[in-house]
Amino acid sequence: MRVRDLVRDQLRDLPRTVHGGTAWKTEGIEDYSHNLNPFGPPPSLPDIVAKAAEEVAHYPDDSCHDLRDAIAELHGVDADEVVVGAGSSEIIRNFPLVFINPGDRVLVPRPTFAEYSQQCNIAGGKVNDLLLLEAEDFRMDVERILPRITPSTKALYICNPNNPTGRVEARKKILEIVEECRHKDVMVFVDETLLTLVPGHEDISVASFAASYENLLVAGSLTKSFAIPGIRIGYGLGGKEVIRHMDKARLSWNVGTVEQTVAAELIREHHGHVERAAELMATEAQWMFGKLKEIGFPVDRCTDSYFFFNSVQSLRCSAAQFQDRVKDSGFMIRDCASFGRPFERYVRFCVKDRERNEAFVHAIHEAMGSLGW
């Protein structure tokens, strides 16, 4: 008997998901394939980590009491409406473990973050794609979404801003969808891990509304906002019953002492670091849009957020080919082929500070020149 024959059906032929942010493995490459705060972590982070490390000789607080208090204060909710995870990836993993039975249908817009479908597939759910259309600016169309929610649909996923398209949806639209799903007994997972780096996010986020809907879970993270992907801190917000069941699915001691201490201090003392980055990137996104238009790169509109999603089809190359040409100039962008057809000709790239953005636009221009443009 082969090991393959012993593996669960849902896992046997399921590939690993593909993500960006891998340029750190290659010396001399500036990574524009990820969506991190361009300022990097707060300068005091090493001191915070060092002090927190003094407490690692005992088990971490399994309840994450102080960190949940800090997250609750940030979003204006109660601490028992917060569950903490080892990155938002743990929240994404646990959601279908709690709410999706084998055979349940889940509606996932595409393209979007690959882990939603991956974790639903692992749990035995049946993923139905809702293709976001270029003709609709890759936005969620309520009139197209609601008819796709049938009696067999158990959950709907929304990423805001959406990864990789960068589109931001208004609070009113999302809550309208949540309300309609509530009438149909459908759970809604809203991922806001990228939203805090968008100016005015307080008026867009539905986090403070999560407890008002028994069918809503909102995910957040410190990874992007504080540029700490190596310190895994994520969380979910929802009504007390939702959170009570989510808490059952997490591993005991899932968030270490260092992570809890660092996260609580960053949230309470360093949110200005995030706000400054959001303002900078909004300005730089407008600047980059104008410069890319000047050099003839096929960008039709400025992003809603701080990363661009663009087709390179008019340059008569694939995303992988364009990625290679840009890498020759010392920059990494995301080849979006992993999001499935028809996105093998789309690339994603972020914005940073002016000096690096000027060099990046020059690299884009050089890549176009190497292709004969």
Description:
The chain has 373 residues and is an alpha/beta fold. The chain has 13 helices and 12 strands. The protein has helices spanning 3-6, 9-12, 45-52, 65-75, 88-99, 115-122, 142-145, 171-183, 240-249, 257-269, 271-294, 319-327, 354-370, and strands at residues 30-31, 82-85, 105-110, 126-131, 153-159, 187-191, 216-221, 234-238, 307-311, 331-332, 334-335, 346-350. Strands 2-8-7-6-5-3-4 form a 7-stranded mixed β-sheet, with helices on both faces. Strand 3 (105-110), helix 6 and strand 4 form a beta-alpha-beta unit. It is globular and about 60 Å long. The relative contact order is 0.16.
Question: What's the quick description here?
Answer:
With 373 residues, this protein is of the alpha/beta class. It is 37% helix and 15% strand.
Strand order of the largest sheet: 2-8-7-6-5-3-4
Give the low-pLDDT segments: none
Give me the Rg, rounded.
Answer: 21 Å
CATH topology of the largest domain: Aspartate Aminotransferase, domain 2
Number of strands: 12
CATH superfamily of the largest domain: Type I PLP-dependent aspartate aminotransferase-like (Major domain)
Number of helices: 13
Report the β-strand fraction as a percent range.
5-15%
Q: How would you name the oligomeric state of the polypeptide chains in this document?
A: single chain
Tell me the layout of helices and strands.
Layout: H1 3-6, H2 9-12, E1 30-31, H3 45-52, H4 65-75, E2 82-85, H5 88-99, E3 105-110, H6 115-122, E4 126-131, H7 142-145, E5 153-159, H8 171-183, E6 187-191, E7 216-221, E8 234-238, H9 240-249, H10 257-269, H11 271-294, E9 307-311, H12 319-327, E10 331-332, E11 334-335, E12 346-350, H13 354-370
Helix pairs in contact: 3-10, 4-10, 5-6, 5-9, 11-13, 12-13
